[in-house]
Write a structure and sequence with these properties.
The protein has 187 residues and is mainly beta. It is built from no helices and twelve strands. The protein has strands spanning 6-13, 21-31, 56-63, 78-84, 87-88, 105-111, 115-122, 128-138, 144-148, 161-171, 174-175, 179-185. The strands form three sheets. Strands 5, 7, 8, 10, 11 and 12 form a six-stranded mixed β-sheet that branches. A three-stranded antiparallel β-sheet has the order 2-1-3, with no helix packed on it. It is globular, with a radius of gyration of 18 Å.
């Protein structure tokens, strides 16, 4: 909760004083007064799932000067994002793999303002395999849930392996920073 508008920096680290910063969640992002929620999906900056353990969430807040004005608008921001069911087995056919199986991945997020959103799925060679949304208008203030069933644009099952969902919003000529989420297909 912020009692004054300011800049927020939020990072995940191994240790408070030593070691690398594993994930940058927010870096000097202007935030208004009020309650705010941020999510971390347990992955590092490269999208790799970190080992089970204890991690430090470091938060820095710097208040604006008393005469500062926080202007909203401009570049949209993808917020409150994440993915459930990061391990997808579209046909649920392999009973020998221990773990929870899902038939689809659920990508969820909000946008800071009404925006056109594109979501593409890329394989490990950075080749686009599926477009889930293409410049689709989405409203702010709503949690958007988009599902992917492991199929490509021609509705063929994709090969087993790691894929990345890239979410980006646009308002006019202003683009958000892309959000990258990892999805594993396993048959």
């Amino acid at each position: 909760t912020l009692s004054r508008s300011g800049y927020i920096t939020l990072r995940v680290r191994d240790d408070y004083y030593e070691g690398p910063e594993l994930r940058f969640i927010k870096t000097e992002e202007p935030m208004p007064v009020g309650n705010h929620v941020s999510y971390w999906d347990g992955r590092d900056e490269s999208g790799n799932l970190l080992a089970y353990g204890d991690y430090l969430i470091a938060l820095w807040a710097y208040t604006f000067e008393d005469n500062a004005i926080l202007i909203k608008g401009g570049r949209p921001i993808i917020e409150n994002f994440g993915i459930t069911n990061v391990r997808v087995r579209p046909d649920g056919s392999n009973p020998y793999i221990i773990g929870t199986d899902y038939e689809q991945a659920n990508i969820y997020f909000t946008v800071s303002q009404d925006a056109n959103v594109t979501i593409n799925i890329y394989n490990s060679s950075a080749v686009r395999a599926k477009t889930l949304l293409s410049d689709s208008f989405l409203s702010q203030g709503v949690v958007h849930n988009i599902t992917w069933d492991g199929l490509d644009d021609s509705n063929s099952r994709l090969c087993e392996g790691g894929y990345r969902a890239v979410v980006q919003a646009r308002v006019g000529q202003n683009y958000s920073e892309p959000v990258i989420l990892q999805i594993d297909l396993d048959f």
